[in-house]
């Protein structure tokens, strides 16, 4: 029967369509050295992709699981459309990948990241399509184990002698088998029915390197408050040479199991059906998420994930093929604090009397973060159902594609809250004077439904043998989310009231949720011989809003009462002993709402690229790629104070819920964000021949936006002037080079010298930008007001005796003085731009050496040694960049210091790590 897409051979010259993307072949997927064996790390091999910044919301790697997304082509990390066998693999609560299938089950990894086909909608970013392995007419299988141990690794840069080296032990076994389905005397599936089964596990014991500021011995002695004295017993003593920092590690065990089944059946000469199912469970401890800096805190997480796909391909004729797909993906996950306690036993009055944990406590000046985590315990149970159909029709000079897709997403949530306290300095912590307190004391539940529908039509018209035009149009309707028990409550600014969605005048959260997105492109084979191809394309894509956008509306009165206290002139602080009581008497109700005119965003994407076939199987490509994002999601403080006075002092007496209740911050999600991306991509690729293939690319790019969504919630300095936030994107990287290769060494004919293979990945990129902020609460939101910049900033790289790196000079002042760089009294908005300083770059070389030995029969034994970050280059994280403002003073503390690597031990680029693997193949 006709095959629409051939799996396994990566096409180099593209003379068929305008899409800019890349296929990574099965050979590369299976053989390239990947730290942690996460297939999503293959994304960094694609032109336009970057190694993620340290602060990524979805791109920062999780222990044992890797990242949940990646940054490419100037798109936000939550805009990538993940698909497996054509079925959506995104968890729509925040649009991350539901889970990463085992590398052993992946046949092909394809990324399209500009000028997308009209077939693809739902997201404005890259399309990642994973094709899974199926069986063949021959029985094949393998059993393997990947082993790692810190005894052969290098120390993390921030884990110096004589501090014990952080533990890292990993065992990653697996087995898979595939072939024809044969039931003796019952069924012979050769040439017809094939199966593929796999199992992969992960057992990991890891200690994450800790380097945190803590109170000094002298400071501890000044604490007289009994609550503070109890909390100090939870904070380890300083053990560095300066007596100001704690160096150590935090335990982070991980257990993962994944099972996969695949069945392919050629029903007849015109029909084929493909079934795939995968199930994964993981249990892991995240001691440093979200943000904790000392041992015994963070959270532990338990998750179950599933994906199922059914694809039926029918050939109506030699030129008409239909592909029908049905599938689902599902995740059930819970987050629970590691440190469980009843806050009342410590004398803390935060509105919580359950045994769920202590508040999350942040001491800004020294970067200390412990307790909590705030917003936990929590969990969700999400299911996405997908039904789609696509037709490919070849008629004369036309290649028509048309079809549609229906998706239904069900999102069940539950939340409790340990609360959050923020202290400006160590002294304010010891004096029990918090400048911010936040809590939602009630349990919050929601059941959210979201339906979506897409339809498209496209034609590639071949004018002549050299020139083709591509036109398409896609319609997407993203249904407005609804809550099963009508528990969404929003703030109506026109009436100054809380209003339940579904009532008169508030029939739905928002209504601007459909779009028509055109596609247009040209493909010109200049010579007619497929040697030189010029392509150009323009597309518009939109993003289906995530349900995290609206889930906060279920935590408003009457179902819950979110409280947020922020320091002000009248009440500069609250204490642990009276926080909830004091805050409840102040205007601190902090509802979350969505703008009534909220609309789906859209991104205009455009490119021009030239491909050239070169000798020796080489292909070069030079591309200009750009995009412009419009109506991007952005959070505003709708009640930002003006000269200390909030526009909405209290709810109206006519409000159905909490009439006359004093109002604090009002978080409003709006669609007024924008972005721009311009880039030059240059690639050189060698197709597999004589045992060698490679791919190398250089990217020059500049990405700018109002908000990159790396940090959730309100990040604007001034909600009345969002344009003031326009600057470099959090993931902006000016220069990046990447190289990857697999090479079967051709020498040797005896058992010892033949069967050798080497493979490598090398990455080199400039740094990501970051923002200097202050602890001012001028705008009602901690950590968003920027200082004045009084001179040019030249980053330093001074190694301190504490082990930290002084990256920014501690040239801080309350009022402008000679020689000062950063000035702020916290009483006005600073003139320093967002993301105006560039952090450390990223350099990493991963190398693999492999030996295959043929045994008797059809067995092969493979032994493999991997070296990650083989040069042991310390890839530094971003510096602590928050200025702590006191009464007429600035506390330098740990300002400007780098205290960790970009990613923890065990993930890409942290320190040199060695891995040994053995594999039996039959």
From TrEMBL:
Which positions fall inside the TonB-dependent transporter Oar-like beta-barrel domain?
132-915
One Gene Ontology cellular component: cell outer membrane
> Which InterPro entries would you find in this protein's record?
Beta-barrel_TonB_sf, Oar-like_b-barrel
Which keywords, in A-to-Z order, does the entry hold? Cell outer membrane, Membrane
Q: Where in the cell is it found?
A: Cell outer membrane
Q: Do you know which Gene3D superfamilies this protein is assigned to?
A: TonB-dependent receptor, beta-barrel domain
Pfam name, any one = OMP_b-brl_4
The record ties this protein, via SUPFAM superfamilies, to:
Porins
Q: Does the keyword RNA-binding apply?
A: no
Name of the protein: Cna B domain protein
Species of origin: mine drainage metagenome
């Amino acid at each position: 029967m006709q095959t629409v897409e051939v799996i396994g051979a990566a096409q180099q010259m593209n003379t068929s369509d305008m899409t800019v993307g890349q296929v990574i072949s099965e050979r590369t997927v299976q053989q390239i050295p990947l730290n942690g064996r996460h297939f999503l790390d293959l994304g960094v091999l694609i032109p336009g992709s970057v190694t993620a910044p340290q602060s990524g919301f979805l791109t920062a790697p999780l222990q044992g699981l890797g990242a949940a997304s990646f940054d490419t082509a100037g798109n936000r990390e939550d805009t990538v459309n993940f698909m497996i066998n054509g079925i959506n693999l995104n968890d729509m609560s925040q649009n991350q990948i539901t889970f990463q299938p085992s590398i052993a089950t992946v046949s092909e990894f394809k990324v399209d990241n500009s000028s997308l086909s009209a077939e693809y909608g739902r997201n404005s970013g890259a399309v990642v399509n994973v094709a899974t392995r199926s069986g063949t007419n021959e029985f094949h299988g393998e059993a393997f184990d990947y082993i790692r141990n810190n005894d052969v690794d290098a120390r993390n840069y921030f884990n110096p002698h004589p501090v014990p080296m952080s533990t890292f032990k990993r065992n990653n076994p697996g087995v898979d088998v595939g072939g024809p389905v044969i039931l003796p005397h019952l069924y012979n599936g050769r040439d017809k029915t094939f199966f593929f089964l796999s199992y992969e596990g992960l057992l990991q014991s890891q200690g994450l390197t800790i380097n945190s500021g803590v109170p000094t011995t002298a400071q501890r002695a000044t604490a007289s408050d009994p609550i503070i004295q109890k909390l100090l017993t939870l904070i380890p003593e300083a053990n560095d040479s300066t007596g100001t920092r704690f160096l150590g590690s935090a335990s982070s065990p991980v257990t993962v199991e994944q099972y996969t089944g695949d069945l392919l059946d050629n029903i007849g000469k015109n029909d084929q059906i493909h079934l795939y199912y995968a199930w994964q469970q993981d249990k892991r401890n995240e001691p440093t998420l979200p943000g904790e800096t000392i041992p015994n805190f963070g959270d532990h997480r338990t998750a179950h994930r599933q994906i199922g796909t059914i694809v039926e391909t029918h050939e109506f004729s030699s030129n008409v093929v239909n592909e029908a797909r049905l599938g689902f993906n599902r995740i059930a996950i819970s987050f629970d604090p590691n440190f469980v306690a009843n806050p009342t036993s410590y004398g803390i009055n935060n509105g919580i009397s359950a045994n769920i944990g202590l508040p999350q406590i942040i001491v800004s000046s020294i970067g200390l973060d412990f307790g909590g985590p705030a917003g936990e315990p929590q969990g969700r149970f999400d299911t996405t159902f997908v039904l789609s159909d696509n037709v490919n029709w070849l008629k004369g000079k036309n290649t028509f594609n048309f079809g549609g897709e229906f998706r239904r997403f069900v999102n069940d949530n539950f939340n409790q809250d340990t609360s959050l306290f923020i202290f400006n300095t160590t002294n304010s912590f010891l004096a029990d004077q918090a400048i911010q307190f936040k809590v939602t004391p009630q349990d919050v539940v929601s059941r959210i439904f979201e339906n979506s529908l897409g339809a498209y039509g496209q034609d590639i018209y071949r004018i002549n043998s050299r020139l083709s035009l591509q036109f398409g149009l896609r319609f997407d309707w993203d249904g407005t989310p609804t809550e099963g028990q009508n528990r969404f409550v929003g703030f109506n600014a026109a009436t100054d009231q809380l209003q339940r969605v579904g009532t008169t005048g508030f029939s739905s959260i928002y209504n601007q949720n459909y779009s028509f997105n055109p596609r247009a492109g040209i493909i010109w084979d200049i010579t007619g011989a497929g040697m030189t191809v010029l392509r150009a394309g323009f597309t518009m894509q939109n993003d289906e809003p995530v349900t995290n956008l609206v889930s906060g509306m279920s935590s408003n009165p009457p179902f819950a009462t979110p409280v947020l206290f922020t320091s002000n002139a009248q009440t500069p602080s609250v204490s642990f002993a009276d926080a909830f009581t004091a805050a409840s008497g102040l205007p601190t109700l902090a509802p979350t709402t969505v703008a009534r005119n909220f609309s789906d965003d859209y991104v205009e994407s455009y490119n021009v690229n030239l491909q050239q076939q070169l000798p020796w199987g080489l292909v070069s490509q030079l591309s200009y790629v750009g995009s412009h994002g419009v109506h991007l999601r952005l959070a505003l403080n709708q009640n930002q104070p003006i000269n200390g006075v909030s526009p909405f002092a209290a709810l109206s007496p006519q409000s159905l819920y909490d009439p006359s209740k004093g109002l604090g911050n009002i978080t409003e999600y709006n669609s007024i964000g924008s972005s721009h991306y311009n880039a030059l991509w240059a690639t050189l690729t060698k197709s597999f021949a004589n045992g060698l293939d490679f791919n190398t690319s250089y990217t020059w790019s500049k990405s700018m936006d109002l908000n990159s969504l790396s940090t959730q919630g309100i990040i604007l300095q001034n909600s009345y002037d969002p344009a003031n936030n326009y600057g470099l994107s959090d993931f902006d990287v000016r220069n990046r080079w990447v190289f990857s290769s697999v090479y079967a060494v051709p020498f040797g004919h005896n058992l010892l010298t033949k069967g050798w293979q080497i493979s490598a990945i090398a990455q080199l990129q400039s740094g990501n930008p970051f923002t200097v902020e202050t602890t001012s609460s001028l705008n009602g939101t901690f950590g968003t007001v920027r200082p004045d910049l009084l001179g040019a900033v030249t980053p330093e790289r001074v190694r301190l005796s504490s082990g930290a790196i002084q990256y920014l000079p501690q040239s801080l002042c309350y009022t402008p003085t000679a020689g000062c760089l950063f000035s702020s009294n916290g009483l006005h908005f600073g003139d320093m731009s967002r993301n105006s300083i560039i952090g450390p770059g990223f350099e990493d070389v991963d190398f693999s050496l492999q030996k295959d030995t043929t045994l008797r029969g059809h067995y092969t034994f493979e032994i493999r040694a991997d070296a990650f970050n083989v040069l042991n280059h310390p890839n530094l994280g971003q510096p602590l960049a928050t200025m702590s403002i006191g009464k007429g003073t600035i506390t330098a503390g740990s300002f400007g210091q780098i205290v960790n690597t970009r990613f923890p031990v065990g993930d890409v680029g942290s320190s040199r790590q060695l891995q040994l693997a053995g594999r039996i193949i039959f």
